[in-house]
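User: Please predict structures.

Assistant: First:
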Amino acid sequence: RSVENVLGEIRALAGRYRVKTINFQDDTFTLDRDWAIQFSHAYGQEFEFPFWINTRVERINDEELVAALAHGGCRGVRIGIESGNESLRADILKRHMSNADIRSTFALAHKYGLDIYTCNMLGIPGETAAMIEETVALNRELEPADLQFSVFFPYPMTELHDVCVENGYIVDGQSLHSYYERKSVLHLPTLSTVELERGYDHFQQLKNELRMKR
């Protein structure tokens, strides 16, 4: 969609509702760097209410882009860290970014006044209790504006679903109402149910800790 097309939709919304914030759910808003910069310039010239976006570390660790977003009215970004363990993140989740890259992205966002909301997972195939603690520790160090955490779910037609099937990780008859529960549909040899629940509770404790700091 063109910049003007998206701006036109926002104008229509603003004409109909009392808009306080625009929340873009595009998975990677900054995938097209030039488009994102152009949009930010145009948005900032026309609208006063802020906006939030989703993106990836690899697609926002760029000072010109971050500056354009901030000056255009972006209030914050949601970024998937998923795991604080670099090997698990790269080998299993295929997210090739280092913890140093994540720290650099946070520093850049904070320089321009952007909040960051992190997305995290636990119960990932191959994960251990110590790896969950690495994710908790990294978030504690970064102090995001807020965070979410969910238990990994093997969606069919994904590579990790196939891995779970091939290794017999999926528990027959197990179902979930939400992946924000304290349990998993997997039986992992590297992570017990008790360790998963303990890790989940540590995430909740961190979430409360960050709220108290704010």
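Second:
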Amino acid sequence: MKTERKLTINPKDFFPPGYYPWADSISPPTELMKKAADDWYDNAYTFLTEEVRAKYKLHMLHMAAARMTPEALSIPNEHIIPCNRWMIWIAVFDDTYGLCPIKELEKIRIQMLSVLQGRNPTAHENGLFHEGAIMRNEFMSFLPDEWIQRFVERMSTYMKYGLIEEC
């Protein structure tokens, strides 16, 4: 008979105090970030199997975003949510397309960049494209145009040299 073990994760096991030269801080709205992340997995990433979505939830990627925004007490949640969305989006994007043939990945890169630049995805495009459009709109609600352009350029660089060069 197989015995099930419940996995308990203590963030301090992975981020021990004093390991980094800065304070070990976490964004206050982590529960909001977790709830949003779980909702995205269940509703936006339905192209992934239920088992894969459950594994992503165990990764607790919202905690990476929480650690990137430790001063979030003074930042509106509307500014933290797209950071959280991006953290999850980039992981799923990399896992989904990271091993595609170069020609296919270049088409996907162009397709995604057009979404990040303002094109609305079609109904047949998977959740990554729809989440990309939502993330773009969220960032555009508070970032200046030059920051949006820089974000798009950095995403292009990531896709071109981070993914395509790996193939």
